[in-house]
Automatic annotation (TrEMBL):
Residues 1-24 form the signal peptide. Residues 316-345 are annotated as: Disordered. Keywords: Repeat, Signal. This is 6-bladed beta-propeller. It comes from the Bacteria. It comes from Dissulfurirhabdus thermomarina. NHL repeats lie at residues 224-268, 272-315. One of its GO terms (molecular function) is zinc ion binding. InterPro entries: 6-blade_b-propeller_TolB-like (IPR011042), NHL_repeat (IPR001258), TRIM-NHL_E3_ligases (IPR050952).
């Protein structure tokens, strides 16, 4: 009897632990799919990035353990992988351009071989390569997140790098776009930028893991506003790593590596809700690193140490009544919501 009771207890416990998290504020999350293997059936292992291509309905995932980008069709079937066979190595990030091309960031391959960006056409054949030589820190610069503007400009965020590189369509370094802010325990200075995104109006969104803020610029790279607060409680960001724009639904999603959550903001930077938590069942995360949104509004999360990308339907709480406001993050009254930030070249 004791063994039977213990078995029953363990079964119930596993069901509880594997169920989607109970979320405050009326947010509900439903797991639609898990992307865990590539087109050869091998585990993707440590997914470091995810993106969605609205023109084809495909999902792109960076498999860090296999050094390749895996492409899934609309039904989340792994269709093809792009890696060494296309001349790629030391793959560290990627982006989908408005021209239908795939831009793949690669780290330094050794002395005298700096980081570079490979440009592949829609059939994944190499078109050209952009070496990142003309940088003061070229020997150690590791590109991680990319964004491509309509005019062909390329914005590159590097690991532990100040601001973002701005490259011409030909790959020439134009300048760095660098927010200035006052990180905790520091005076005003240029801040590190971890991710970059561009919306339909060509506004730029720069995410800093260092300050836990998003800096928003217009199409001319003029600073507009910033939002976000550093902290470990609900509504705050501890170690944000990636962001995604859902303009159709008026949301900005930010994935927090250390809090194992995804936070949602409106397009003005007002905090809306969050979901997730540390775990391994559907709707739980284990150090997530990136986020994307498909054309149905489903949220795709690169769940690093669970070795998967989760596809989630997220149903937020009802909008507040007219005149009401969303609850501010705990302790917000004690902190400045936005510090002044200005672009520097």
């Amino acid at each position: 009897m004791k063994h039977a009771a213990m078995a029953k207890f363990m079964t119930v416990l596993m069901m509880i632990l594997s169920a989607p998290p109970a979320l405050a504020g009326g947010v509900t999350v439903k797991a639609v799919a898990e992307l865990k293997v590539d087109d050869s059936g091998a585990p993707i292992g440590f997914p470091g990035g995810v993106a969605y291509a609205p023109d084809t309905g495909e999902t792109y995932v960076l498999s860090a353990s296999r050094g390749r980008v895996v492409v899934y069709d609309r039904n989340f079937f792994p269709r093809v992988s792009v890696g060494a066979g296309r001349g790629l190595d030391h793959v560290s990030g990627f982006a989908l351009g408005p021209d239908g091309r795939l831009y793949v960031a690669q780290g330094p391959a050794g002395p005298g071989t700096p980081a570079r960006i490979a440009v592949l056409d829609a059939a994944f054949f190499p078109v050209r390569e952009i070496p990142l030589r003309d940088l003061p820190d070229a020997a150690s610069f590791l590109p991680e997140h990319l964004a491509v503007a309509r005019d062909g400009r390329l914005y590159v965020a590097g690991q532990n790098s100040v601001g973002v590189l701005v490259l011409s369509p030909e790959g020439r370094l134009l300048h760095r776009l660098t927010p200035r802010d006052t990180p905790p325990g520091s005076g005003e200075r240029p801040v590190l930028v971890r991710d970059v995104a561009i919306d339909g109006a060509s506004r730029l969104y720069l995410l800093s893991e260092e300050t836990s803020k998003v800096y928003v610029y217009d199409a001319k790279e003029e600073f507009l506003f910033s939002f976000g607060q550093k902290g470990g409680s609900s509504g705050k960001m501890s170690r944000p790593r990636g962001l995604a724009l859902d303009e159709a639904r008026g949301r900005i999603y930010v994935v927090d590596y250390m809090r194992h959550t995804v936070l949602a903001y409106d397009l003005s930077g007002r905090y809306l809700f969050e979901f997730g938590g540390k775990g391994w069942g559907p709707g739980w995360f284990n150090f997530p690193t990136d986020v994307a949104v498909d054309d149905e509004g489903r949220v795709l999360v690169a769940d690093l140490f669970n070795h998967r990308v989760q596809v989630l339907e997220v149903h937020p709480p009802a909008e507040p009544a007219a005149g009401a406001t969303s609850p501010a993050p705990k302790g917000a009254e004690e902190e400045k919501a936005n510090f002044q930030a200005v672009p520097s070249r």
